[in-house]
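This section describes the prediction task in plain terms. A model, or a person checking by hand, is given the sequence of a single protein chain and must write out its three-dimensional structure as a string of tokens. No templates, partner chains or ligands are provided. The sample shown here is typical of the held-out split.
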Amino acid sequence: MRKSRFVIAATALTVTLSAGLAVGSRSDTAEAAVVWNEDFNGPAGSGVDTSKWNFDTGGSGWGNQELQYYTDGTGNVAQDGAGNLVITARKGSGGHNDCWNGACQFTSGRIQTSGKFTQQYGRVEARIKVPDGSGLWPAFWMLGGGNWPTDGEIDIMEVVGREPNQLFGTLHGPGYSGGESYGNQIVSGTPWHQDFHTYAVDWSPNLIVWTVDGNEFFRATPESLRAAKGNVDWVFEHSFFIILNLAVGGNFGQGNPAGLPDESRMLIDYVHVSA
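The expected answer:
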């Protein structure tokens, strides 16, 4: 997720994957202790733990001309009683008529850990089932602060519903943001929305490695970044916070939001951070 994003500038080869995902397995990091976890084992209808999570709210378009109004509380973000957090995008304004383009077309949810949990280095992973639908834009990502893109952005997982077999992993920073971002995409033999998958980054000094279900699909270093983008700064040597959201439409989500069902659900089984 980011501002004014039109395309991803992929700098590694796109890899076509079978259902078994035959790419390099993760071997860079040893198993480490979990330092922060969220397993969403609350009762059905309960909200998130507000000692861990904040809500982002509003219908400003979020720099991408997105169509949803993000709400707080359990209207769009609630646990299902079966071990999952559900972020639901719903058609309709939900009574919110102050979106950037007038009456809000959807409501949805966006939660983040700013001021409550940040991490520098380690493994950041989540097990997620993304929704199906052209126009949806689920994401699991991190920001390094409030000064975008100078503080940096690490997109661990983005799947846009108009291209349901594609998975994106991306970095944004000064001189490589928006449509000039640095990342990779892979193509699976089956749509990502068909099942849960574990999306992760293993992050250490001067290295970030992206995996899905334990299989590496992209790695970035200061050297590879500069080889692709010129004399730009690597801004990933400080703490970042975690974000989960389900956007609709926007410059990158695009698709056919009008054709979406009344409800679309993103399920998150857990988020774990180890160091």
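For orientation: Residues 3-30 have pLDDT under 50 and may be disordered.
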